[in-house]
Amino acid sequence: MKFSWIFNGTLEAHHLAASYLAVWLIQGGYAAWIGWHWMHTKRPSSAAEPGLFTSEDDS
Amino acid sequence: MKRSRILGPVGFVWFVATVGIIAYATRLALFVAPTEATMGNVQRIFYYHVPTSMLSLLFPYVNFAASLCYLYWRRRDPLKALTADAVAISSAEVTVVYSSICLLTGMLWGRAAWGIWWTWDARLTSMLLLWLLYVSYLMLRKLSSTGQTHTLAAVLSVFAAIDVPIVYMSIQWWRTQHPAPVFGGGADSGIDPSMKPAFWFNVLGWAMWGIFILLLRYGLERRRQESEQDAALQAIEASLEIAQ
User: Fold this and answer.
1) Which DSSP string corresponds to B157-193?
2) Do B31 and A15 touch (CB under 8 A)?
3) Substitution target from B15, B43, B226, B229 for chain A, most A beta carbons within 10 A
């Protein structure tokens, strides 16, 4: 499939492009929302050991 | 000064691998998989719609299991109960994200393939009900101010999980506008072998992404819980100092 097909102006093309974009926007938006709250949630002073997705760093 | 990062090394590697797999799966879906004979190119929505729909029926069970654990531990071991509660709210949010995508991509596909955005058939209605149940769960947790909010939410989640098998079986139990199951739906079900790589790579990629954001959200919730505990302890210490 040629990439230009997505922009050929048919309803099918618009809905296909909208579907893929909506998925990226919703998933990316949710991840960004988590990241924003992470930055704005006070780190507890009695923080536990770093887990799978978190770690501590001297700066 | 110590600073915490949102991603550790394992998380970073997982994130990069996930994004790579999703990019590759998207390329397969849009440019490599053959054009479907009846619907044409709009059928390519299938490669995002079906994997996210499958996953939107799996994450509720994480929420269900975590809620049962919360109900079991809430008096016996409050610290474990808090951990279970963090898993519960994380999985409920991920369920809402995936089921929103399922409904939205389904509507976009339905409008192009059937000529309608929505019909009140068993599959679509039961999926909408699932979405509403988990949105209600999150609203309850956000807006309720009683001391029993977490317990009420856990009980609601147990009831919400009952809708999952109904959604799954709806296209077998009732005649619906929605197509029959693609996999495990009898002799005529299944997809062309040339479409399978695009489909299964998308299942893998979006499952890895779901696990990634679930753990990320869990980390945030634990951080918030610990921060609240700290604030409560400091308030107690301050009040004791004033009393002395």
Assistant:
1) HHHHTTHHHHHHHHHHHS--SSPPPSSSS-TT----G
2) no
3) B226
**B196: how many CB neighbours lie within 10 A of its CB?**
13
Cα–Cα distance measured from residue A41 to residue B220, given in angstroms and rounded to the nearest whole number: 8
Q: What is the pLDDT of residues B179-194, one digit of tens each?
A: 777 776 666 677 888 8
Q: Which CATH number fits domain B7-178+195-228: 1.10.8, 1.20.58, 1.20.120, 2.60.120?
A: 1.20.120
Signed CA dihedral, B27, B33, B39, B43: sign only:
negative
Handedness of CA B28, B32, B33, B35 (dihedral sign): positive
Domain layout of chain B by residue ranges? 7-178+195-228
* Residues counted in chain A: 59
When scoring B31, B32, B41, B48 by the number of chain A Cβ atoms within 10 A, the one with the most, hence best to mutate, is: B41
The model's pTM is: 0.88
Among residues B127, B126, B142, B133, the alpha carbon closest in space to that of B64 is found at: B133
